[in-house]
Write a structure and sequence with these properties.
This protein is α+β, with helices and mostly antiparallel strands and 317 residues long. 42% of the residues lie in helices and 15% in strands. The longest helix is centred in the middle third of the chain and has 28 residues.
Length: 317
Amino acid sequence: MKSSEDKVLNKAKSAKRESKEIEFKAEFHPRRRSDWCELIKDIVSMANSGGGCLLIGVKDNGRPSGSDIAEVLTLDAAKITDKIAKYTDRQFAGFDISELERAGHRIAALRVNGVCVPMVFVKPGTYDAGGGKQKTAFAKGTVYFRHGAKSEPGNSDDLRRSLERELERVKESWLGNIKKVVDAPVGYDIQMVPAGTVASTMPSAPPVRVVDDEAAAVYGRIYADVTHPYRQKEVLRSLNERLEGKKKINAYDMLSVRTAHRIDETKREYFYKPRFGSPQYSEAFVDWVVEQYRKDGSFFDAARRKYRSQRLREAPD
C-alpha cells in the first residue's frame, strides 16, 4: 500500500494536467463554504475511485497560481475529517497534507487513500454562488467518482470497478499471507497480528498487551514511558480520586500491596523498574487495585497485615 501511495505523490509532483488521480486547485480558503464543498467533493470522489492527490496552489494549466497556501498546510486533519463526516456520516481520515515546490512556488499536496466501500453523500453540498443564486456541489444520496479529470456522480461501471478493486486487494492479501505460510521454516509457528502493528509511541498505533510470560516472542520495542506512565505519587493521586474518599491511600499502602501480592516480581504488566530511576506503574495496575478494593473492603488492611507479618519473619533474631 505504501508504494502505491508514494507512486501517486510522485506522479503529482510532475503532473502537467489533471487526470483521474490528479486534481488542481488554484486556491483554497478555509473560511469559504464553497471551497469546502468543492474540496470535499473531490476528496470523496478520489477515495471512492481508489485514491489520488489534490494539488492546491496550481492552475488548470499546471502552473503555480501563486496563492498563499500557508493556511492549507496548517489545517487540522481532524477538521477535514469532521467536514467529510458532516456530509457522508463517515469518519474518513485516509489523507495527509504535505508541502511541495513547483517552479519555485510552494504548493500543498493533499494525498487521498482509496476506500473499500464507496462513501455516499447524506447531505447536499449547497453554497451561495453570488447574485442570490445557490449552487450544489453534490446532492444528497449521490455517490461520486472520478471520471477523467472530473468528479461526477457514479454509475454502475464505477460501482463494478470499486468492487473489483476491493476483490483484488483481498486477493493480494490472501496470496501474501499464503506465501508467508509456505515460506515459513520447518519448526516455526505462524502467528497473526493486526495489520500495521509496529513499535510506536503514537496514540493511533495498535495496542500490544504486555505479558509476564518469559517464553513470549518479542514482537517490537515496548516503551515503558507509554505502557507504564505513572510514578508512585501519580498512582496515589489517581487511586484516591477513583476511591472517592471511601479510603485514603498512602505510600505505605502501596508498599504493602506491592509486597503482599509480589507485584514487583510477577506482574510486569503492572510494574516496571528502569535501570536508572524510580519504579513506574501502568494504568492496568490502578484498575486492578481499585477492582480489588471494590471486591473486598479490607483489601488494603489485609495487605498491611501480610506485609508486617513478612517483615517480622525476615527480621534477624
